[in-house]
């Protein structure tokens, strides 16, 4: 697995850079021993979880006590989500992250997804960087959170 590129939505990249975490979060995906292919999502997520745990990030957290909706990790005023499944789940992730932002629980977030090529290797109708990037631009007034969209393959 390797980091490919990032997309800056509402100055999300600046928020990660301001906290001196941009290089760290993109380096999480530099893992030559982790293959991106069919049935690799558990290994991908485990690798990312270990990297975040090592830096004191939380495990999954509920976005609100009144429901059972979670995001992958949180630390201080940032949240992190990884999506290696169906494209519809990625948009649901964006709504959850935007909720955390709009309620003042976080100031910015990152969403990591496979590149288009990597998504094809994983399976059909998998979340991919290009599609989410294009649709974030379309829904920029709806998804208002400062977000760093990360691509890996």
Task: Compute the average pLDDT.
Answer: 97
> How would a crystallographer describe the biggest sheet?
5 strands, mixed
Our count of domains comes out at 1
CATH class: Alpha Beta
Q: How many H/I helices?
A: 6
The parts where pLDDT drops under 50 for at least 5 residues are: none
Q: Which shape, going by the Cα principal axes?
A: globular
* CATH fold group: Restriction Endonuclease
Structural class: alpha/beta
Give the terminus-to-terminus CA distance.
5 Å
Helical fraction equals 25-40%
Give the number of DSSP strands.
7
Structure in words:
There is one protein chain. The protein has helices at residues 12-18, 22-27, 41-54, 87-102, 116-122, 129-138, and strands spanning 3-9, 61-62, 70-71, 73-75, 78-82, 108-114, 147-152. It has a single domain (3-144), classed as Restriction Endonuclease (3-Layer(aba) Sandwich), CATH 3.40.91.20. The termini are close together. The protein is built from six helices and seven strands. Strand 5 (78-82), helix 4 (87-102) and strand 6 (108-114) form a beta-alpha-beta unit. By secondary structure, it is α/β, with parallel strands linked by helices. A five-stranded mixed sheet has the order 1-7-6-5-4, with helices on both faces. The chain has a two-stranded antiparallel sheet with strand order 2-3. It is globular.
